[in-house]
């Protein structure tokens, strides 16, 4: 009996997926619930398992192809699977002579050149070096009668120091690599363009003295880690300060819907931008207002670990009402983050650097961080944006207030 393997539904917003990697080959016997293919949506990666104990009879969609939800990507044969396995082996055997054919009758012009002119004009090591750089023996002026490896290296070094116009166009195609954009990268590109085209984005800045938070972390970091099994980072402080500011300025936790309505949310789903193997992803802390410092840090640590291995689930990457982006972990001093539609704001954190500041009439050196708030001016007025960012600054510079309220 033939069984179809279809792309399952993974959420209302997901209409297509990309075939990342087939984990099994045609003719392989697989067990029920054994992973056979890795798929990528525009939000995350996921594995698709075999529907029953069966044999993978036919792969219909190859790696890299984009397919729609509900589309059949493979056929399975329920049963022993031996005929399919034998068939696959026969196909492999039949394919072997074809793989050897190019050796007897090369089609590449460079190969012909190597077997004729270059055989007599270059030493074996010289020929290898010529082939490596896509050159022919006639391109190089040897020191002796034959082209040696040293002659090729000298020639390559000489043209690398010339203006690019001297090199010519011979190897331009070999110097380029065309790779299809992944669904996640395409999704990121679409969202960024959408934000620029639909929203009226504006950014305001401030700087915050990190001395007080750093002192708290120094005094309580060790006991915090022993008790909760996770380091006390900066992100939990900023998340707490952010939620306090969002409660005071609900327009930054709102969205425009249907171009005519503003939806104010009474819950706080905070997106935390983290790097992954596929690009930037934003897992969401659902109901972050209910979370403790430890729960925030534990969740972020778990998200970051699974993001690197592309194991985040689509539902963990959706539903955010506001986003925090920390470019400081990469050394960014200042940036203008882009709002993630339909959200109305994003907070940008940056690197901590010692700077001279005036305190009580005296110039002192303090660990300072620039903060950036990008907001949708259609919903948020400039005054609200500035006071919102100022409220976050005040909370970070007086963290004991957050601890008392927590």
Automatic annotation (TrEMBL):
Its EC number is 2.3.1.61. One of its GO terms (biological process) is L-lysine catabolic process to acetyl-CoA via saccharopine. Its cofactor is (R)-lipoate. Residues 157-170 have a biased composition (Polar residues). GO terms for molecular function: dihydrolipoyllysine-residue succinyltransferase activity. PANTHER family: DIHYDROLIPOYLLYSINE-RESIDUE SUCCINYLTRANSFERASE COMPONENT OF 2-OXOGLUTARATE DEHYDROGENASE COMPLEX, MITOCHONDRIAL, DIHYDROLIPOYLLYSINE-RESIDUE SUCCINYLTRANSFERASE COMPONENT OF 2-OXOGLUTARATE DEHYDROGENASE COMPLEX, MITOCHONDRIAL-RELATED. It is an enzyme of class 2 (transferase). It catalyses: N(6)-[(R)-dihydrolipoyl]-L-lysyl-[protein] + succinyl-CoA = N(6)-[(R)-S(8)-succinyldihydrolipoyl]-L-lysyl-[protein] + CoA. Keywords: Acyltransferase, Lipoyl, Transferase, Tricarboxylic acid cycle. E2 component of the 2-oxoglutarate dehydrogenase (OGDH) complex which catalyzes the second step in the conversion of 2-oxoglutarate to succinyl-CoA and CO(2). It comes from Bremerella alba. This is Dihydrolipoyllysine-residue succinyltransferase. Residues 78-173 are annotated as: Disordered. The lineage of its organism: Bacteria, Pseudomonadati, Planctomycetota, Planctomycetia, Pirellulales. Pathway: Amino-acid degradation; L-lysine degradation via saccharopine pathway; glutaryl-CoA from L-lysine: step 6/6. It comes from the Bacteria. Belongs to the 2-oxoacid dehydrogenase family. Pfam families: 2-oxoacid_dh, Biotin_lipoyl. InterPro entries: 2-oxoA_DH_lipoyl-BS, 2-oxoacid_dehydrogenase, 2-oxoacid_DH_actylTfrase, Biotin_lipoyl, CAT-like_dom_sf, PSBD, Single_hybrid_motif, SucB. Residues 121-156 form the Peripheral subunit-binding (PSBD) domain.
